Amino acid sequence: MSEARLTGPVRIVGVGLLGASIGLGLRAKGVEVILADASPTHLAIAADYGAGRPAAPGDVPQLVVVCVPPDVTADVVASELAANPTAIVTDVASVKLAIYDDLVARGADLSRYLGTHPMAGRELGGPMSGRADLFVGRPWVVAAHEGISYRDASVIDDLILDLGATLVELTPEQHDRAVALVSHVPQVVSTLMARRLIDAPHASVNLAGQGIRDVTRVAASDPELWVQILGQNSAPVIEILRGYRDDLDRFIDALVDLEAPGARRRIAEELFGGNTGVERLPGKHGVDRRYASLIVMVDDRPGQLARLFNDVGDAGVNLEDLRLEHSPGAQVGLAEIFVLPEVQERLTDELAARGWRIAG
Amino acid sequence: MSEARLTGPVRIVGVGLLGASIGLGLRAKGVEVILADASPTHLAIAADYGAGRPAAPGDVPQLVVVCVPPDVTADVVASELAANPTAIVTDVASVKLAIYDDLVARGADLSRYLGTHPMAGRELGGPMSGRADLFVGRPWVVAAHEGISYRDASVIDDLILDLGATLVELTPEQHDRAVALVSHVPQVVSTLMARRLIDAPHASVNLAGQGIRDVTRVAASDPELWVQILGQNSAPVIEILRGYRDDLDRFIDALVDLEAPGARRRIAEELFGGNTGVERLPGKHGVDRRYASLIVMVDDRPGQLARLFNDVGDAGVNLEDLRLEHSPGAQVGLAEIFVLPEVQERLTDELAARGWRIAG
C-alpha cells in the first residue's frame, strides 16, 4: 500500500457510516485519526472498531472532517473552524450550496473551509457499517470556492487520494444540480412509485418482477436523512421534478386521448427519449454495450456458484459483472454472466463442455 | 426430467423471444412443436435453433399458442380459432382485457380460447434470445373467463406446468390492473426519469451511482412494444399514473413551501410510505430481511470470484443472493454476499481466515 499523503492528525466529527469509513481508511494508511461524536456510544463503537481514538485535550489536527447530518453541518463546521484555528475544515454532506451560504452568513473563516461530497454510501448507517474501502474508485466532489488558497486546499486532495477516491472539482451550484438529477430526484421518483404499492392487492404485488424491484430499491432509504437532503437542495430538485411532472402530464394526456392524431407517436417519442437517457449513464449497470452476457442455470445448492465461477476462472475469463435471478420456490436459479464480447463464444463452449446448461 | 403433460402437437404462431422460448421448452420435454411466423427468416432461425419444425399442410395441433405483438394478437387468435377447429387457442400478450373484448366483439369461439400471460422476459427480443428455461419458477397468469370448460382449459395448465412456471389464475381485469401497477407504470416512471438525463451535463451524469441506474434500467426497453402495451392497458395505467401525479404535486408543493407548518413532516411521511411500499414486494431483491449480507473485496482479475465462491462453498454455505459493485477504473470490486443470518458470522470468520478482506 502506498504511503499516506496526509501527515495528520485528522479529526473526524461524527462517526456514522461516512465518518467511521474515513477513519478506517485513514488508519489503514497509518494516519493518526481523532474521533468525536455527540453519542458516547457511537464514539466507543467506532474507536473499538479501529476507526481512530477519542479526542483528547491538546489535540492539534491538520484537518477536520465534519460527518454529521446535513441540517447541523454548517453549525459544526463553524464551531470546528473556531476551535481549531490552524486546521483546514471540510464536510461530506450531500448538499453543498446551502451549507456554504450559511457559513458565509455566519462570517466563518472560509480561507480554511472547503466542502466535499464523496459519492459513496450504503442503505445501512452507523459506525458498524463503516468500510475502509467505501470510497475506493468512487467520485469524491470538491465544492470549489475562491476563498481558500490552492496550497491549503491541497490537504483535501490528499484526504481524497489517501482514501482511494477520484477527485471531481465542481462549484457548489454545479454539485447540487448534479446530485439533484442523479440522486435526489431519483429518490423521490422511486419513493412515489413504491407508495403506489402500499394498498395494492397481494395478487398484484405477487406478480412483481425485477423491473419494479429496481425502480423502487432506493425507496427503502432513511426518511429522516432524506428530508434534510431534499430540504437543503429543494431549488434544483423542484426544478427537475417540475420538468418530470410536465412530461408525466403530457404522457397521461396522450394515453387519455389515444385516438387523437399523433398521440401514439408522442408516447413512442417519450419511450425513445428514455432509451437515450439511459445510454448517457456511465458504468456497467446502465445499458452497457461493452459486455456480452450469457445465462447459466444453477441449482440452488451450496457450492454450485463456486463450481461455475471456478470453470469461468479456469477458462481464463474475467467476469465483468453478474446478475443472479432466483424465483422464490424454484429449485434452479439463473446466473447472467457479463464478459468481454470477444470471449463470449469460447466461454459458452467451455461451460457447455463442462456440463453447464447455458440458457441464453 | 418429468414427462410432458401435453400430448401435442403444439402450434406456436410468432417466434420472438416468448414463442421461441416456449418452443425450446416444449421440445426439451419431447413435445412436437409446429412453428409459424410472418417472417421466413425468424421462422428459419427458430427452427434451426431447435424450437420446433415449420408448419406443414395437414397439421392438427392440440394447442395453438399465439405469441405476436399485442396489437395484432386478437386478429391472429381469431384466425387460428377458425383455421384449427379442434384446437384450444391461447396467447401470451401482456394485456388481457382488450384482447378478450375484441374477440367477444368478433364473435370468436371463446369456448376454445383462454388468454394467458407469462411474467417472464428479457430486455432482448427475437428468436435467438429464446431460452428453454425462461419460464421456470415464474408466475404465469391465466386470464380466466366463463366461456371455456374446465376440461378444455386444462390443456393450458399442462402448457404452463410443462414449462416449469407457476400458474396464477386472475380475471382479465385483475390481471390488467396488476401488471399496470407492477410493470406498466414502473416502465413510465423509469422512462420519464431517464428522459431527464438527455440534456444533462457530463459532469452530472458522471456522478451517477447505483441508485439512478436501478431506477432507469427498464427505460432501456423497446418503445414499439411498449406503445402497444400502454395503449391496450391505458385505463388502469392512467388511474395509477394520476395517483402518482397527485403524490408528486403534493411533494413538490411541500418542497416549495418548506417553512409552512407540517411541510417537512409531509415529506417525511411520503418517504416513510415509500419504505412501506417496498416492503410489500416479494422475493429477494426487495428490502429482504430474510438474509444477512457481508461485503468482500475482490481483485478485478480472472478467477478471483471463483476462488471466493469456492471458499463459500467449502464452508458449506449457500449463497442466497449476490450483488457485484465495481467502479470503473478501480482495481478492486466489492461482492456483497447474501446468506441466511445464522451462518453470517461463521462465514465471515471462515472467509477472513482464508485471507479475504471483509469490508462490512
From TrEMBL, chains A, B:
Key words of the record: Amino-acid biosynthesis, Aromatic amino acid biosynthesis, NAD, Oxidoreductase, Tyrosine biosynthesis
Enzymatic reactions: prephenate + NAD(+) = 3-(4-hydroxyphenyl)pyruvate + CO2 + NADH
NCBIfam families per the UniProt record, alphabetical: PRK06545.2-3, PRK06545.2-4
Source organism (scientific name): Agromyces allii
Residue ranges of every copy of the Prephenate/arogenate dehydrogenase domain listed in the record: 8-289
Pathway assigned in UniProt: Amino-acid biosynthesis; L-tyrosine biosynthesis; (4-hydroxyphenyl)pyruvate from prephenate (NAD(+) route): step 1/1
Residues of the ACT domain: 293-360
EC numbers on record: 1.3.1.12
Pfam families per record: PDH_C, PDH_N
InterPro entries assigned to the protein according to its UniProt record, in alphabetical order: 6-PGluconate_DH-like_C_sf (IPR008927), ACT-like_dom_sf (IPR045865), ACT_dom (IPR002912), NAD(P)-bd_dom_sf (IPR036291), PDH_C (IPR046825), PDH_N (IPR046826), Preph/Arog_dehydrog (IPR050812), Prephen_DH (IPR003099)
Protein's recorded name: Prephenate dehydrogenase
Family: Belongs to the prephenate/arogenate dehydrogenase family.
